[in-house]
Amino acid sequence: MRVRASDISARTIGDETIVLSLSTSKYFTITGVGTRLFELLAEDRSLDDLVGAITSEYDIDADTARRDIEAFLGRLRDAELLH
């Protein structure tokens, strides 16, 4: 999965990313670890890839990371921001 780059405009300032869906004209704000996940999703990544990256970069166990990442990906899917 990856972000629908052709359908969005995004800018990151510090640890906050502002995303505009060009197809729906809706704005989204992503903060903290979500900003890092959004960066990782610029390329095609599996859930396992994302969990591995986040657990190696942040002090979080794999089960918690997986649960939180799945919730984040669900919100991106609901907003139609993922391929």
From TrEMBL:
InterPro entries: PQQD (IPR008792), PqqD_sf (IPR041881). Pfam families: PqqD. It comes from the Bacteria. This is PqqD family protein. It comes from Amycolatopsis tucumanensis.
